[in-house]
Design brief:
The chain has 119 residues and is mostly beta strands. 3% of the residues lie in helices and 48% in strands.
């Protein structure tokens, strides 16, 4: 498990075509704020700065397996958290040790799981 190198990374899911957008460069910076002109059906997910036990980058919306229990990576109350998919309303914090024990097994779009995938 490695902590990210400080880069801000995103991935984009096209919920109509059901594909990942590999490159997108229509943006501008206005008064120091990054402004993207994207369709509402594109879902942007941010890299959380951690990797799983196999070195794969963990993004918002990923489904992680931790000791045979699956969790969705969510952003809530200004921090990254894990929402347990097997125990209703169970949410816990995420830290750099999480990656040492977890494995990415899918994401909310391609795995047909969770919270607001279709929103």
């Amino acid at each position: 498990m490695e902590v990210g190198d400080g880069q801000i990374k995103f991935r984009i899911w096209d919920s109509i075509q059901e594909i990942w957008i590999s490159a997108y460069s229509k943006f501008e910076i206005i008064n120091g704020i990054l402004v993207l002109d994207i369709p509402k059906y594109w879902k942007i997910q941010e890299f959380i700065g951690l990797t799983d036990k196999n070195g794969k980058e963990i993004f918002e919306g990923d489904i992680l397996d931790i000791c045979d229990v699956q969790h969705e990576v969510i952003y809530q109350d200004f921090s990254w958290k894990l929402k347990c998919l097997e125990i209703e309303d169970y949410i816990m914090g995420i830290n750099y040790l999480t990656g040492k024990f977890c494995e990415i097994v899918g994401n909310i779009f391609e795995s047909g799981k969770p919270s607001d995938a279709k929103a």
